[in-house]
Amino acid sequence: MKPALVTGASGFVGWHVARELAEAGRPVRALTRGRNPVRELPAQYGERFEVVTGDLQDRASLDRAVAGCGVVYHVAADYRLWSPEPGELYRSNVEGTRNLLAAARAAGGERVVYTSTVGCIHFVEGGLGEESLPVGLEEMTGHYKRSKFLAERVALEFAGEGFPVVIVNPTAPVGDHDFKPTPTGQTIVDFLSGRMPAYLDTGLNVVDVRDVARGHLLAAERGRVGERYILGSENLTLREIFAALGEPPRWRVPYGVAYGAALVSTGWAAVTGRAPRAPLEGVRMARKKMWVSHAKAARELGYAPAAARVGLERAAGWFRANGYCR
């Protein structure tokens, strides 16, 4: 059996995709840049789990990584809502995706599952976003979403040329082994640590990261080439998310106040070079409730996620057990 290549296996979603593959008895080759280790999995799965180093901007390293692989899961991304050098996001997310897809095609890869983001879906005011709704670059708020949107265009370009690429759009995954943590995970940590005295009137679609990982495997097996599949679970307000974790804050912050604070925080970051506590891009994204439907994935892939509470409770337990909450 050919190994499956997983990029970004040292990160949150990539780690869970690699684990899901290994649990299914499939050999895994995990690509990392070498800066962060793939924790636990190599020791747990032994010879069936190989770690290789490379960089999305180094085509030669990608050619070595994809050699002999069957399915490629391209999960790696530069996921930052603020960067002192925005060009880095485009080089990693857009050109890096082009490099990997070109390497996989040249190596005769059987299929690529490209991990996009729900941010590339059109959100409907008072309704649910879904894959078929038209959306353009002008709707993308900030460099992260723009870079991921352009990377999606690259994936669709390869699919249009006959290379079997399927796109998945995870919503807001939560759960164990959120090492960094992600922006959603950091919000959970801040709440559990008592650093969230108020909330913003916004909403997310929350999903257990293990369901997102399973959705990747389903996309590889059943997804249609060139199609996008939302991998989500429940649409919840931020207050409902906090209520699932404990006693929610009593106070709601007006959007204008949050925007002003983020403006100051992001401006100060430009002076200091340190990431802002409240990135302006994140607050802009929060202006709309990012609510979507995963009906297409359920219908075509057999995707059946658990309730969001499952992932939220697992996230809280893991963060507490690993010293994130102080």
Helix count, per DSSP?
Answer: 12
- Report mean pLDDT, rounded to a whole number: 92
- List low-confidence stretches: none
**Largest beta-sheet details:** 7 strands, parallel
Task: Tell me the total number of β-strands.
Answer: 12
End-to-end Cα distance: 45 Å
Radius of gyration: 19 Å
Strand content: 15-25%
* Percentage of residues in helical conformation: 40-55%
* Spatial ordering of strands, largest sheet: 3-2-1-4-5-6-10
Helix-and-strand structural type: alpha/beta
Following the backbone from N to C, one meets helices and strands in this order, namely: EHEHEHEHEHEEHEEHEEHEHHHH
What is the global morphology?
globular
Structure in words:
The protein is of the alpha/beta class and 326 residues long. The protein has helices at 12-23, 41-45, 59-66, 87-106, 142-160, 183-192, 209-222, 238-245, 255-272, 280-285, 295-301, 308-321, and strands at residues 4-7, 28-32, 49-53, 71-74, 111-115, 165-170, 172-174, 198-200, 203-208, 228-231, 234-237, 251-253. The protein contains twelve helices and twelve strands. The strands form three sheets. It has a seven-stranded parallel sheet, sandwiched between helices. A three-stranded mixed sheet has the order 7-9-11. α5 links the parallel β5 and β6 (165-170). α3 packs across α4 (87-106). The longest helix is centred in the N-terminal third of the chain and has 20 residues, at 87-106. The radius of gyration is 19 Å and the shape is globular.
